[in-house]
Write a structure and sequence with these properties.
heterodimer; A: about 240 residues; mainly alpha; about 0% strand; flat; B: about 350 residues; 2 domains; 18 helices; globular
Chain lengths: ~240, ~350
């Protein structure tokens, strides 16, 4: 890995190399559970937790396992961490655990986690690897939550409904109705095609922002003169 | 239109996109008249509202994409999409339903793929399906026919006045009779499991002469429009012929006679639902359908078989929109295996041998 500065790792995970919008990894949960904010946030936290811990663990054992057996070792670590997360969710957020269902065990097979373990954590120090896992997890989780909020808002006209499943009784009155309570709901947004559409639009927005930023940077670069100019009062500056 | 033929001779004529679209619009006129006579002014209001929306959405997206507004708006393709969608939607679809359907058809179905000629799916059917799966209640409220008021002794009151139609569409029908919608013949046949066909016909006003009451006349009007397009060489017979043949063969095979488990006669299926609209105005789309002559026939045949499959064993009473979208997916593959023989070559290059 070329970039091992903490700032670069953060920027990569959150924006430049975002797992959800650029690498397009982990699409199965990204599209499968984002039909409400609470589902998306629940899976985002679980994935980020597993990703951070697995990166840290893989980085710690990176000099002890040989190349030939590294993948089975990584998968064992990830599976163990996923099981821990699953048990935690069963203990504290049982209803949400039942709603998310198969997607919690499926964190094991999430390409982001094995991808970061093999591509980054296996080659970098624990501090760098842990930060990379955390930032990738937050980047992925942010995309999940944004898609979840948009789909919930368009699909059922609510925001933050059923948050008590994740955050306890204090969140039970958080439900918002931005369009009023007689909004009919746009069923397509909650169905699988809605997930693809919202993800596609988010990618388009990100590309648009990147293109604008690049154009601005180019304009700035073009403005700075390449050679020193002498002050002239006649003729054309070459 | 240049898209209709791909092999030489490349005939040059006055068949510009605009002319083709104009003929398609003319061909829908009989059906517009029949629909308006039978179901009231909703169809006309829907048509105007959908056309205005389609031009608005098209202009907005073209401006965003930095394309020439005048050139692309003049070709009339957005107008045709809007008209076909308005004819497919229930006549008193609320204004926001038409807005969503047209917006989806033009923005997502057409412009995001690159505009006219680039869309893999039929935009009108895409808009229809989005509306159907998102708002099933509004999409299945098909109004009662004119003569049903007398047949049911006033229990069902069709909405026939112009002002009433406006109230239905733009004000959610406030103050108007509640019993204005009625089950269609396909609905009734789908849920029927106790009456024989002759009993159904005798007891339910939605069954007409051969097909659905009123709907059979609409289908004949679409057939007339289609024959006009065929006579003007705007469409070839292959895709519509294939679809009607597929539907007729399937309904003949699985007819099951006149008992209570009958699936309806071939004539019933040909003259009910969106059969003729689909056959002559939807599967003939030169962009999202197959290109070669043989390909178009296979494309139509697939649509016909799928329409019958959805009607008889699927979850929806009619299935033209779903069938067309599914076959749109298959159209590139059909073209891949049905390329015609090029002049001067002894055998066509198609399928895995393509390009050899």
């Amino acid at each position: 890995m070329a970039n091992t500065r903490f700032g670069d790792i953060t920027r990569n995970g959150l924006w430049d190399n975002n797992p959800g919008l650029v690498q397009l990894l982990g699409l199965c949960p990204l599209l499968g559970v984002t039909n409400s904010t609470v589902n998306a946030l629940g899976l985002a936290l679980a994935t980020a937790l597993v990703l951070t811990c697995s990166n840290l663990a893989v980085s710690l054992i990176r000099n002890a396992v040989t190349d030939a057996v590294r993948l089975p070792a990584f998968v064992m670590i990830i599976a163990a961490l996923t099981t821990c997360t699953e048990l935690l969710m069963q203990a504290f957020t049982y209803e949400l655990y039942q709603i998310l269902g198969i997607f919690i065990p499926l964190i094991t097979t999430n390409c982001i986690i094995l991808g970061r373990a093999d591509a980054f954590a296996a080659k970098n120090s624990p501090a760098h690897a842990g930060l990379d896992g955390l930032m990738m997890g937050i980047g992925f989780g942010a995309v999940l939550v944004v898609i979840g909020m948009l789909r919930e808002l368009i699909g059922s006209g609510t925001l933050f409904s059923n948050m008590q499943l994740l955050l306890g009784p204090m969140a039970s009155s958080w439900t918002l109705h931005p369009f009023g309570s007689d909004y009919q709901g746009f069923l397509l947004a909650i169905l699988p095609p809605g997930a693809f559409l919202v993800l596609g639009l988010l990618i388009a927005v990100k590309n648009l922002i990147d293109a604008r930023l690049a154009a601005r940077a180019q304009a700035l670069a073009a403005d700075t003169p390449k050679v020193s100019r002498r002050v002239r009062v006649t003729g054309v500056i070459e | 239109m240049a898209l209709l033929r791909i092999t030489s001779p490349h005939a040059h004529g006055r068949n510009r996109t605009q002319t083709v679209m104009l003929h398609v619009l003319i061909a829908t006129l009989p059906a517009v008249c029949v629909l308006t006579w039978l179901f009231g002014w909703g169809t006309v209001i829907n048509l105007i509202w959908a056309s205005a929306l389609a031009l608005g959405f098209e202009a907005a997206i073209l401006a965003l994409r930095g394309r020439s507004l005048a050139f692309f708006l003049q070709d009339g393709s957005a107008l045709v999409t809007a008209v076909l969608l308005a004819l497919a939607l229930p006549p008193f679809a609320p204004w926001w339903l038409t807005l969503i359907a047209v917006g989806f058809a033009i923005v997502f179905g057409k412009q995001l793929y690159g505009g006219l000629g680039q869309n893999p799916f039929n935009p009108a059917m895409l808009g229809y399906v989005v509306a159907l799966i998102s708002f099933p209640a509004a999409m299945t409220s098909w109004p009662a026919v004119r003569e049903m008021a007398a047949m049911t002794q006033g229990a069902v009151q069709p909405t026939l006045g112009l002002v009433d139609a406006f109230i239905r569409i733009f004000a959610a029908g406030q103050g108007l009779p509640d019993a204005w919608a009625h089950a269609t013949a396909l609905d009734t046949l789908k849920i029927n499991n106790s009456l024989t066909i002759s009993e159904l016909w005798a007891t339910h006003p939605e069954f007409g002469w051969l097909g659905g009451r009123g709907v059979e006349a609409v289908n004949l009007a679409f057939l007339a429009g289609g024959l006009y397009l065929w006579a003007r060489h705007i469409i070839s017979w292959h895709a519509p012929g294939g679809m009607l043949l597929g539907l007729a063969l399937m309904s003949l095979l699985f007819w099951n006679g006149g008992g209570s488990d009958s699936n309806g006669s071939p004539l019933f299926h040909l003259l009910t639902g969106a059969t003729m609209l689909g056959a002559f105005f939807i599967v003939t789309d030169p962009v999202s359908g197959a290109t070669s002559i043989k390909g178009r026939f296979i494309f139509g045949l697939g649509v016909g078989v799928l329409v019958y499959t959805i009607r008889t064993w699927g979850g929806y009473p009619d299935g033209v929109a779903f069938a067309v979208l599914l076959m749109n997916l298959a159209a590139p593959t059909i073209d891949y295996y049905t390329r015609p023989r090029t002049y001067g070559h002894s055998s066509p290059s198609r399928g895995p041998n393509l390009g050899n």
